[in-house]
Specification:
Shape: elongated
Distance between the termini: 18 Å
Strand content: under 5%
Largest sheet: none
Radius of gyration: 17 Å
Mean pLDDT: 88
Low-confidence stretches: none
Number of strands: 0
Order of helices and strands: HHHHH
Structural class: mainly alpha
Amino acid sequence: MTSPSTQRPILVWIISGFFFLSAGYTLYAFISLISGATPLNAQQQLYVDSLTPINYMTSIGIAALNLSAAVMLFLLKKQAAPLFLAGFTLGILSGVYNIATTNWLETGAASVVGFFLSQLLVLAVVAYVFKLRKRGTLT
């Protein structure tokens, strides 16, 4: 039986579940994109054609960091905090790199707005996880 001090807060369940599902979706999206199953307009196709191994490896790295962070958070381990922070930082750097090296901004406002909104969400998660760590919920 878990003592009240080690019970997972509801947000830990929600955040962990979200990132577990996100990792699965990222894998699905890569397979769908690479296989050609996802229809793309001309600007999107130009963007995909401009991606380099650095883009793919960065995306995989972000997914791996976030998945690892979610596992650590679910286990209430303090390592979740730096892992989420690393995923957030790599995500921002990846966005800047994509803006500088691809036509990403031309693919449509939805993808850019979605990116920035997702980064705000991850920043909120980072702040929450560091708060849990400071409070002693994460060991």
